[in-house]
Amino acid sequence: MPLVRVSLRKGKPAAYRKAILDGIYRAMIATFNVPDEDRFMVINEHDEADFSYSPTYFGINRSDDLILIQLTVSNTRNVEQKKALFRRIVENLEAGPGVRPEDVFINLVEVDPANWSFGYGLAQYVADKT
Amino acid sequence: MPLVRVSLRKGKPAAYRKAILDGIYRAMIATFNVPDEDRFMVINEHDEADFSYSPTYFGINRSDDLILIQLTVSNTRNVEQKKALFRRIVENLEAGPGVRPEDVFINLVEVDPANWSFGYGLAQYVADKT
Amino acid sequence: MPLVRVSLRKGKPAAYRKAILDGIYRAMIATFNVPDEDRFMVINEHDEADFSYSPTYFGINRSDDLILIQLTVSNTRNVEQKKALFRRIVENLEAGPGVRPEDVFINLVEVDPANWSFGYGLAQYVADKT
Questions:
Q1: Subunits close to B (at least 3 CB pairs below 8 A)
Q2: pLDDT by residue for chain B (130 residues), tens digit each?
Q3: Do the Cβ atoms of A42 and B49 come closer than 8 Å?
């Protein structure tokens, strides 16, 4: 069920952007109990004036290749699983398309399992009483 | 107070997109205790490389007409209300602009009523102590 | 750690948009216990059909200059801090670039401090047990 929203600067080729989504998707499958094919991901590309970041916060040397990743997920994972997800996303994106580990920013938003509908207007993660 | 963010592929006419927002808005009024005129909605249109989804997850046959709907709402509704909202959104969007029920993905993000300001920098949903 | 997403109508110059982000950033530093340089902000610019709002909700007279601000933050502030943030954002944006207080909509999404990674795939806000 993750809904993944990636924000980055305009100008990267489609193959690069596709590789980012693939890397995040594979990390979720491998570390976060996300089932195969549970893939709903979008990218927003931004002009310079619409993309503002600190090049130094937390002592990390970021560049214009920074990728902001926001994943909305069910609230069913513990801290160790979150850490594993973060590590794996960074490893995958470094392997391809070649994003520096300094340039990966990740944020999780957690919601109740009842807060998802995957089609037909049903809440697939909660049992139906009717 | 819902803040509604819709993501879809580029290429739909303005009337189609407007009908999507109208359908979601009417569903919130009808099923989710949302007052009239409480309407704050945006659409992000995406290139193919920026919009990635599973055409099969949960056994649902999705197409490029898929609509990803994320509603940020106050945490004041129960599961039955959520189910009613999901159903109604899908019914409305099928009636107009004609979205297939398989192509409607919905996610709710719930927040505290204190987390909203509708103007003037006030937190309109919490009583002012000063 | 705030991740700030601003949505507005297309057509504002870059300096105007940059001033919006600067004003929000300074408000977070001043009122919300956000450290210097903790800045991760994006703007989405929308066509008319992709940006829909009530011009009257809560008796507030909004215009097409409306700015929808969604801040994802750690769940560590109280209501008074939220109110102070809202007030300061509105004051700052009125001072420059000159946004009407009626045209500032703010929403907070709160998450656990473990839900952030600022680079290197680490969860910088939670102690490492390994």
A1: A, C
A2: 799 999 999 999 999 999 999 999 999 999 999 999 999 999 999 999 999 999 999 999 999 999 999 999 999 999 999 999 999 999 999 999 999 999 999 999 999 999 999 999 999 999 765 5
A3: no
Is the preceding peptide bond at C101 cis, omega within 30 degrees of 0?
Answer: no
- Among B9, B3, B6, smallest CA distance to B106 is for B6
Could you give the domains of chain B? 3-115 (3.30.429.10)
What pTM was computed for the model? Answer: 0.97
Question: Which regions of chain B does DSSP assign to beta strands (E)?
Answer: 3-9, 40-46, 51-53, 67-74, 104-111, 116-117
For A89, the 3-state DSSP assignment is helix
Contact call for residues C51 and B14 (beta carbons, < 8 A): no
Q: Is B20 helix (H, G, I), strand (E, B) or coil?
A: helix
Q: Which residues of A touch C38 (CB under 8 A)?
A: 54, 57
Rounded to whole angstroms, how far apart are CA atoms C66 and B45?
A: 20
Distance, CA of A90 to CA of C105 (rounded, Å): 34
- State yes or no: is A2 an active-site residue: yes
Nearest chain B CA: its distance from A20 CA (Å): 10
Instruction: Give per-residue burial for B94-114: e unless 16+ CB within 10 Å, then b.
Output: beebebbbbbbbbbbbbbbeb
Choosing from C2, C13, C97, C101, which is the catalytic residue?
A: C2
Contact predicate A7/C42, CB 8 Å: yes
Chain position carrying tokens 């560590």: C76
CA gap B79, B100 in Å, rounded: 24
